[in-house]
Amino acid sequence: MVETHHLNRRARDKLTAMQLKAGTQYRSAVCDTQVVVVRAPADEVELGCGGAPMLGPDTDAVASGAPLADYALGSLIGKRYAEAELGLELLCTKAGAGSLTCNGAILAIKDAKPLPASD
Questions:
Q1: Residues paired with 88 in a beta bridge
Q2: pLDDT for position 117
Q3: pLDDT tens digits along 64-100
Q4: Shortest CA distance to 41 belongs to which of 65, 17, 63?
Q5: 3-state secondary structure of 114
Q6: If DSSP codes are grouped into helix, strand and coil, which group holds residue 12?
Q7: Residue 101, number of CB atoms within 10 A of its CB
Q8: pLDDT band at 15 (very low <50, low <70, confident <90, very high)
Q9: What is the model's pLDDT at position 119?
Q10: Closest Cα partner for 25 from 73, 74, 50, 59?
Q11: What percent of the chain has pLDDT over 70?
């Protein structure tokens, strides 16, 4: 399990709460990471990557800079990242150097469900 880190104050001040919708794609502002929302929470959340806010589909901005050192654990393509208490699940569609965060906490990779026995 990934240890939970919280964004420093300067990085957190840049994040803005947004209402997520299943199927919506977001991309990092500081690396190549791209995700799609699989399960969206009912409440607004602050979604980030590498210590910077994630960019929505209606943003033309290009990723620039680099992830903050404390938030550069990377994201892995094909992995699901979740925050069970909020009901958030993201699927990473493009890997990058930044760590995915929700409300300032680094998201953990969701554990795979065990397959049923085939005997």
A1: 83
A2: 79
A3: 889 999 999 999 999 999 999 999 999 999 999 999 9
A4: 17
A5: coil
A6: helix
A7: 29
A8: low
A9: 64
A10: 59
A11: 87
What pairs with residue 106 in β-bridges?
Answer: 101
Query: By three-state DSSP, how is residue 94 classified?
Result: strand
Q: Give the DSSP letter of residue 20.
A: -
State the pairing for strand pair 34-39/88-94: antiparallel
- Distance of alpha carbon 49 from alpha carbon 101, whole angstroms: 6
Cα–Cα distances (Å) from 98 to 11, 68, 94, 113, 114, in that order, read 13, 8, 11, 26, 28
Q: Determine the longest span between alpha carbons in the chain, in angstroms.
A: 55
State the residue for tokens 């958030």: 88
pLDDT for 3: 36
b/e sequence 62-84, b meaning 16+ C-beta within 10 Å? ebeeebbeebbbbbeeeebbbbe
